[in-house]
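for the record, two folds in this file. i put them one after another cuz i was lazy. first one right below, seq on top, structure tokens after. the second one comes after a little note so u can tell where it starts
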Amino acid sequence: MSETATQIGAASTFLADIIATSINSTYSVFVLALVLGYFLFVRNKGLPPGPLKLPIIGNVWWVLLQRSRGKRIGRAVKEAAAKYGDVIHLTFFKYNVIFFNGTDTILEAFVKRADDFSHRPHWLVKDIRDEYGVVFANGHEWKTIRRFTLHALKGK
């Protein structure tokens, strides 16, 4: 009778192993499908190119890799510009950061298309700014306040 009990115990252990392997395989396939779906469909397709972005952390891994190689971020971005072009997109957790490289690109962005690029990030100043002011204002609001301040200081 003990041989039968041993065989039943071995069979149940074998079935438990199959079920556990099946569950682990199901989770693995699910995680793989999520990661693949992220890279194919969810990534920011309207933004400039840049290094590979991982889910959740974005390009933090890339910055840490560059630092471990002894490169400063400015130098690493300049070298990445040779591969990706003068406009590079990096993501740090949920924040998108765009880098401009080259004097022509910077001139185009901040002088010729100043209205498109003149806004400060909302997340950067939302805790500091409660009221209006020249320093923390953006776009049309900034132009209006600046114009008023200059007229008031000139006395006209």
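(here's the note) second protein begins now
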Amino acid sequence: MLPVVEGAKNICLAAYDIGVLTFESVGFAGYAVRRHNLLFKQFFEVGNRSLLIVTVFGLFVGLILVLYGGDQLQRFNQEKSVGLTGLAVVWEFGPVFTAFILAGRIGSSYAAEIGTMQVYDEIDALKSMGVRPEAYLAAPRLLACCLLLPVLVTYADLTAMLGGAGMAWLSVHVSPSEFFRVFFQYLTFKQMWHSLVKCLVFGGIVAMTGCYHGFKTTGGAEGVGRSTTESVVHSLLAILVADYFMGRILLALD
């Protein structure tokens, strides 16, 4: 029982520290906007450099969902409803899987970059020059992830819809126009709003978890590798937990 209690204690302490870091980073958002060169650099890293993998992800998610969903619907002569698979993309697959991609590609790089600065005392050098690490390092990354994850998810949803429409036409002979007609018939503004809220929270989780593990790095190169791994693992778990509780809250508010 003691290891379980100790693990729960460590999780609570880490969550508290990440919350404090998030609060401080939000407070320095104005600094990040004024130092727009720092912000635009993170925009490029989060946005432009993620487009290719998000394109591939969205396309094949749409293909796979319609391939299997269309096959099951065809058994009940309901293949014309295959456009409903697009709602699963908007509700869950788009926000969650794109956040997973961001955690693996961006969150890990944040932990590695800031962790390397930490072990080489560059963070202390910033402090000695009167620069707050939360303002210079964490705030631009938080803003970039929170602002660009909704854009990436929208793009992933679009590519998934295009891939799904193509697969619907090839596998169950449902025209793209019928696919999109069913999809938009059942898509509501609340569903899009829920997806946007999830994106903002997931972006914050990815950015702050990566920065937190970077700031806590010790032990040289081995410590940097450990922090990078922990950042990805903890981000994925936090995204899943947050997705469940946010889903419960958002559904209760409907």
